[in-house]
Amino acid sequence: MDSALSCREHLPREEALQILRDRFAPLPARPVPLEQASGEVLAEEVVGARNVPHYPAAAVDGYALASEDTAQASPARPVLLSRDRFCWVNTGGAVPPSCDAVVMVEDTSEGPDGLVVVRATPRGQNVRPVGEDVLAGQVLARPGDPVTPALQALLLCAGVREIPALPKPRVLFIPTGDEILSVEEWFRSGATPPPGTVVESNSLLLRGLFRGWGMDLHVHPLVPDDPVQIRQALDEGAESYDVVLLGAGSAKGKRDHSASVLREGGGLLFRWLLMKPGRPAMGGAWKGKPVLVLPGFPMSTAVVAWGLVHPFLEHLASSSVPSGEELCSSLGCGEPQECRLLVPLSSAQGMEDWVRLKCARIRDQVVAWPLSTGASSLFALAECDALGVLPRETLELPKGSPLSFYTLKRMDLDRTVLFQGSDDPAFQRLASRVRLRGAQVAIRTVGSLGGLAALARGEAHLAACHLLDPQTGIYNDSFLAQFDPQRQWWRRRLYYREQGLIVPSGNPLGLRTIRDLAARGIRLANRQPGAGTRVLLDHLLGREGIPPAGLEGYDIQCVSHMEAANRVASGQADVTLGIRAAAEALGLDFISLAVEPFEIVGPREFEGHPALEALMSCLEDPAWRLQIEALGGYRWSL
Ligand SMILES: Nc1nc2c(c(=O)[nH]1)N[C@H]1C(S)=C(S)[C@@H](COP(=O)(O)OP(=O)(O)OC[C@H]3O[C@@H](n4cnc5c(N)ncnc54)[C@H](O)[C@@H]3O)O[C@H]1N2
Ligand code: MOO
Fold first, then answer.
1. pLDDT above 90 coverage of the chain, percent
2. Which N-terminal stretch is annotated as signal sequence (predicted)?
3. Residues 212 and 227 grouped into a single domain
């Protein structure tokens, strides 16, 4: 036990990193046999042990000879050499010491009297002298150089048997948690695993990150929230590994033991980082080996891996990442780039805030919007294109603020259009088809009205419209006239879709019409303001003279058809208004109330955009049409 350690709390990530760097020295270089050294990085310079070539070598097939014997030779006055004045050499063969040049066989003819040479062959011609390529003692490669195939071959020729490689820290990840199921248990648990259980997904995530860094990660079998077993696993880790990563148990739960185990058994160096997510991360020592605790939520694990674990491993491995470029190295991207925020962003005060971003480019401006901020959201982590790392002093970033971002995925913004608008499963499938044509539709679900307003502000290439005008009973026309008074947008109808009541299978409450929503005790799930489906609901209720305020659940704002239908499927609501496809996807019953045209619209200025052209060509794709028909409730004409 290292009682001399004092624990720093509430500290910036960089300070935590510095504490680790000060406390744990880089690992020694590793000798690696040359044949196995592919992909390694040199820890020291390497000098040649032998000359290459180590003998004077013929560069052509021909005759080795003394250059002075051919000094007068020319096609007009060939020279005849007697048999003791030349000898045959193949390309690469040794030139005898008595010879200093090689004449190409094409410039000679050998006859019974000797060799006829038609060209003067100056000293050294066609001879590769000793050490021409490499001289013994010559510096061949320097620290930090990657061992490429060419370097490997060169070092072999230069007589180098093994190389000093940068150390590769051996790292063990110990997942912990009583609630965590192994992958086998997860799939064995059926379609609905018991509440409170979570699959052990962090090691899959971490392994992938390590692979991207060119490092291996070993994973310990799952350990329950039991201090004795956690200590035992740490003992095993410290015995055989250079670094131990302890998963979860980092916050204040009754089953969170990481801090107390470390504090009592090894030493806690720091705890509570000024970053979000990842705040409960901690660092310590166990039997002299570094231990880092990764908070359990996936995004927290990833952020701590990027921001702390990888830079620390690079320190242990003595890799020379220039200061300030640590995150680019961890994230595997180039210099941060700049975008403008499509929406305001508020950052937690005093915290370095890691934000998952989606990006698009409109005209010449790269724009970005944040995805979910929840540390538990894996979808946001998988879906985002980029990360914004907001410095601790950032508070409010108004809409339009510049923001620098690190790319996580290759983005082809020339071939990406930004769609803002309604949620629609068929349109989602269309976006997948567009991918197959090498282009992308970035989708931001903001409802029909939100999409039209975004188009009007020049913040999207494309929006959707399925809005019923209660006054006229006509879809879309009046809304487009309002948002595009100058008529500068094109419009195209994609399909019609059925809207209706989505109720549990078998319709246990016997709901039939919109009037039934007003019955006592009926729990509704509604959509967000601005969603076309909510506009339709309001219209249908209004027609029947039903005041929305009286409906239980009218204030519930689901942002997609699937979210609303899932509320019904899970028993949280008795009914929602939505499309037939959402009901069918979840095996729910559907009572059809309306058929609406689903149109897409966009400014003419973007016509010809490659992603828009790809989208238009997908509309004719029979495979997509079949896929849409199978969703249920979509049709091509009224
Ligand atoms: N009262 C407080 N509660 C929490 C605080 C706090 O300061 N006070 N901090 C929150 C923050 S921030 C985070 S982050 C989490 C950290 O949680 P722990 O590290 O203690 O981890 P658990 O509570 O055990 O698990 C959290 C979450 O992650 C899931 N998990 C854990 N391991 C894995 C794994 N290997 N693979 C996938 N998912 C995993 C776990 O099941 C939980 O759902 O604490 C907050 N609470
Ligand atoms: O800091 Mo926690 O890691 O936000 O979710």
1. 90
2. none
3. yes
Sheet of 101-104, strands arranged across? 86-89, 62-65, 101-104
What is the pLDDT, as a whole number, of residue 2?
45
Distance CA 387, CA 359 (A): 10
CB of 299 closer than 6 A to ligand 1? no
Instruction: Give the pLDDT confidence of 14-25 residue by residue, as tens digits.
Output: 999 999 999 999
Q: pTM to 2 decimals? A: 0.86
| CA-based end-to-end distance of the chain | 77
Please indicate, yes or no, if residue 333 is contained in any of the structural domains: no
User: Looking at the predicted structure, is the pLDDT value of residue 110 above 70?
Assistant: yes
475/540 same-domain check = yes
Q: pLDDT per residue over 451-495, tens digit each?
A: 999 999 999 999 999 998 988 889 999 999 999 999 999 999 999
- Looking up residue 308, the CATH number of its domain turns out to be 3.40.980.10
**pLDDT value for 5:** 53
Report how far ligand 2's centroid is from the alpha carbon of 292 (Å). 15
Token digits of residue 608: 């010809």
User: What total of structural domains would you count in the chain?
Assistant: 5
Residue where a domain terminates, one of 277, 302, 326: 326
Residue 423 resides in a domain: no
The H or E element containing residue 403 is: strand 402-407
pLDDT tens-digit profile of 56-72? 999 999 999 999 999 99
The single-letter code of the amino acid at 129 is P
Check whether residue 319 and residue 240 sit in a common domain.
yes
Identify whether the C-beta of residue 460 lies closer than 8 Å to the C-beta of residue 450: no
Number of C-beta neighbours around residue 392 at 10 A: 17
Gap from CA of 387 to ligand 2 centroid (Å): 16
Give the mutation target among 198, 255, 291 for probing the ligand 1 site: most ligand atoms within 8 A of CB.
198
Ligand 2 nearest-atom number relative to CA 300: 3
Q: Tens digit of pLDDT for each residue in 390-424?
A: 999 998 999 999 999 999 999 999 999 999 998 89
Query: Running DSSP on this structure, what letter comes out for residue 175?
Result: -
Domain of 46: which CATH number? 3.90.105.10
CATH number for the domain that contains residue 490: 3.40.190.290
**613 and 575 assigned to the same domain:** yes
Angle (deg, nearest 10), helices 447-456 and 532-543: 120
147 & 203 share domain: no
Residue 207 predicted with pLDDT over 80: yes
Residues 501 and 534 in one domain: yes
**The predicted structure's pLDDT at residue 323:** 83
Task: Let me know if residue 425 belongs to a domain.
Answer: no
**Residue whose CB lies within 8 A of the most ligand 2 atoms, among 256, 271, 279, for a mutation test:** 279
Tell me the residue range of the domain where 74 lies: 57-128
Q: What are phi and psi of 482, to 5 degrees?
A: -70, -45
Cis peptide before 277 (omega within 30 of 0): yes
Distance CA 104, CA 86 (A): 12
Give the contacts of 31 (CB within 8 A, at least 6 positions apart). Answer: 162, 163, 164, 165
Q: Is the CB of 300 under 6 A from ligand 2?
A: yes
Pairing of strands 79-81, 114-117: antiparallel
CATH of the domain at 376: 2.40.340.10
Same-domain pairing of 373 and 517: no
Q: Which of 450, 593, 456 is CA-nearest to residue 528?
A: 450
Beta-bridged to residue 549, according to DSSP, are none
Q: What is the mean pLDDT of residues 116-135?
A: 96
Residues 88 and 204 grouped into a single domain? no
Is residue 616 in a domain?
yes
